[in-house]
Amino acid sequence: MLSRSRRTSTGGWIVQLTNAPLTLEAPSHIEALLRAYARFPEIGGRVTHR
């Protein structure tokens, strides 16, 4: 994923998950999202910090 990503000026990341524009109707795009969520659990605030 890092080869298809870039850092923003505010310290965030933009990651291109698919070659085509992302669509939730494409099973391969859903799989790409699931892999990203599994790899980076912090996406969407899914990790609680103690």
Provide an overview of this structure.
The protein has 50 residues and is an alpha+beta fold. The protein has one domain (2-45). The chain is 26% helix and 12% strand. The chain contains 1 helix and 2 strands. The protein has one helix at 27-39; strands at residues 5-7, 13-15. The protein has a two-stranded antiparallel sheet. The mean pLDDT is 84.
Structural class: alpha+beta
Number of helices: 1
Task: Give the SSE string.
Answer: EEH
Biggest sheet, spatial arrangement of strands: 1-2
Helix fraction by DSSP (H/I, runs of at least 4): 25-40%
**Low-pLDDT stretches:** none
- Major sheet, described briefly? 2 strands, antiparallel
* Mean pLDDT over the full residue set: 84
Instruction: Give the number of DSSP strands.
Output: 2
For the record, the count of structural domains works out to 1
**How much of the sequence is in beta strands?**
5-15%
Pfam family, one: DUF5953
Protein name: DUF5953 family protein
Organism: Stigmatella ashevillensis
